[in-house]
Records
---
Amino acid sequence: MEVKELSFLGMLSYFNMVIAGLVNPRSASNATLYSLKDAVLGAFAGFFMQNESFLEYQRQLNSRCGRDNAQSLFGLVKIPTVEQMRNILEGIAAKYLFPLFKWIYQGLRDQGYLKGFAALDGNLLVTLDGTQYYDSEKISCPCCSTRTSKQGKTTYHHQAILPVIISPDQESVISLPPEFITPQDGSEKQDCEQNAAKRWIASHSSWFEGQAITLLGDDLYSRQPMAEHCLEYNFNFIFVCLPTSHPALYDWVAFMEANGEVKTTQQRVWNGRYFDIWDYRYLNQVPLREQQPVLLVN
């Protein structure tokens, strides 16, 4: 596929390519007022402008002037309401829009834009973090996860892993495809953030051939099975390890420190007014857990 210039128009061109491959969830009807393209682009426009009233304002602008920014910027022919967009888009699985993420990532890579995000000897830093975007005690669907309170009340919710490429030298981030935390076919156990992260790693490792990746995550990810999964797919990782979840690791660090084996280093960092002195302690080949087999991490 031809790599397009990653301007706004280039990104919109990729978006239109994805939309062209979508199957309209509605039955064919002469009464159809809004196209599938208008519904998808309308939703994108609202999120892109970060303004929930953007489309309503454009609708009023069109009635007064015969033209609006939704037409000129995003290519909408007719502007649907939020309720109309929701009714149309609820019939389309989000995964059919995911090729857009890959095309944009490849375009940024091929045009050298990702070099500005490289850190740690050329690695791209990819954060793994979960978010909840739906919660109800009454409304549920087959894709819902559940939690039950001590009082026996069940809550239904939707969650997803949202990986993004970050850099300490960049204010912006680059979004990668999400992975939904949802009941898996053939599994009796409820899905979880770690399993969703493992699926994402297995599904997207081929994207990064020739590019070193370091995954970042909180204490939830710092378990040996997850670490081994990252190494299996040639990903580096920096995961937080808390004392409460990794007592063996902290006991080992304390023992090595008592024997003078923990190394230290300092760094002078300019904060805009004066230099801060940052002190670091580090130790290599630390056991991640107590039971065998044990993985030694740096």
---
Amino acid sequence: MSVLPAAVGPAAGGRLAGIRRSSISLRIGLGIVVFFAVVALVSLFWTPYPPNAQATGPFSSPPSASHLFGTDATGADIFSRVMAATVKDAGITIAVIVIALVVGTLWGSLIGFYGGWVDGLTLRVLQVMNSFPALLLAVLVLSTIGRGLLAVILVVALIPLPDYVRLARAEILTKKNWQFAEAARMIGRRPRAVLFRHLVPNSMRPLFAYAAVNASWVISTVGALGFLGLGIQPGSAEWGSMIAGGQSGIVNGQWWISFFPGLGIFLLALALHLIGDGMSDDDLLRHGH
């Protein structure tokens, strides 16, 4: 009587199914992101019409062969504007995530490794930061300092920063007494080298997974600020601003003016969430949870 290998048992079967699900999520998410990356790259060199040009066709005309996404109330080509907005919204999202990830990882790693009164003070500061509703905080700060590309990036990067700090801190606290860290100390590595050459690189995967999920929130928040007129210059080729520009036409059946930029936000946010979700599932499966 043959004995089935453990790899094909019920637990292994569930593990393999989980790996397949995470792989599918990653592939779908990456495929959509690659599509948007191509659109953004192409828009730097070509769009059917100048994105900011008005009267490129009839005013508020529905999608047609000459205007694939129709035109808005000024006669601007929505397809061209959606293409140009991809660069702007995706660029803001990338900048926000890079700032929050780098600052949050450094801050959280240092307090998790060294501890002390700075650690306690940081936790109190993070609690205060998290006590404000995210979008309300962004609106209040931007209303005070004024809108603009740099202001939007810095304010939106500030909001999720506590989560990056906490996650990095937790990873370092968990791993700083593991065998590989102890081995580095035993061969004479200085504390700073142990932290940045061993602990931080081995703690980045959960942070990258969270960054991908957080990026879906960022793209939605940037769109919301643009819709409220607190993002970059109103009327520019930016998805949130374009949605706001078309809201008055919805009651008249001019759905396409807001629909296509809204679809851009939805698809990119969905793709980023799928990537982060796939990375998180894969990380749990790798560690046998």
